[in-house]
Amino acid sequence: MNRTDRYTAPWVAITAVLLWGMHSAIAAPAGADYFPNVPLVNQDGETLHFYDDVIKGKVVAINFMFTSCGDICPLETAKLRDIQTMLGDHVGKNVFMYSITVDPDRDTPAVLKAYREKFKVGPGWQFLTGKIEDIDRIRKKLAMYNEDGDELSDHSINFVLGNEKTGQWLKRTPFDVPEAIVSVLLERLQTHSLMASNSRQSYTEVRALPSVGNGKNLFLSRCTTCHTMGQGDKLGPDLLGVVSRRDRQWLTRWLKEPEVMLKEKDPLAIALLDQYNNIPMPNLKLKSTDISDLIEYMQEEERRVNATPKSLLPQPYKLQSIIKNTAETTASSE
Ligand code: HEC
User: What mean pLDDT is reported for the chain?
Assistant: First the structure.
């Protein structure tokens, strides 16, 4: 069985120590007895021991990934990168971030280093590789190990947040809004008492925030990691005006199967890929109703922005008229 198969295996909660899900947290026994202290190697070739150096006494965000994963891993990496930005100075001090590869044969320290640079990951977030047996042990202990054939496509959870000292561990999906994850890391997990009931409530409030139209909801939860509407480029292009500047059929198909269009070398898709640091837009497994809702939302937003006097828009805000057709610009400058 190769790494990818294992990674995609449906996951089984191996340990009762870990309660998981939206509102659950756990009380773990003393971490040193529970977690393996196996050696891992970071992107710079330095050895870190999982218990002593990676998690002991820390609030951590850990995800399992592999660099050749075409779909959900870039999404998770991008989401974590957002979270890292929002955490600012807390990273490396109050919160420690780790991405552990499940494909250590391929993901050598050098490969992880290159991946980290490609995603412009800042300091305080390490990428780790090691022996597959050791990584599997860690995943089992974190209940992140799937014995047989999971669907990555259901965006299953490869992302765990925890406080080793208090023994609280939570699973999250890459689609949780970053604000919610940040609040878990900076508030809920920083408290040394176990699971104050009011923190549960405040998390629910954060979760419930984007309950607007389906299109907006989808955009906020799935796209804002990489895109804005009028506030400039992130990992992907600013999408304000995209509904006007692209052919509707192209746009619909792009949202449905970007990876197929890239494989087919669709010229516009290739030009965009080139322009955006070779980070492929992930297939977000959107249903066709989701796609039309998203397009409708983006169109509404464009109308709203164009109808608002420039002076009333938050800065920096792009107006549709000043957005260039990025792909044409790229093509003509080559
Ligand atoms: C992991 C980051 C990521 C996420 C999440 C993401 N995108 Fe993208 N998107 C990109 C990148 C990078 C590009 C440009 C490069 C490429 O893939 O060709 C892009 C390109 C696009 C384009 C083409 C832009 C143009 O100028 O034609 C559209 C439209 C788009 N994305 C919409 C969306 C929508 C809608 C969502 C949410 C449902 C979304 N994206 C989620 C990274 C992302």
Answer: 76
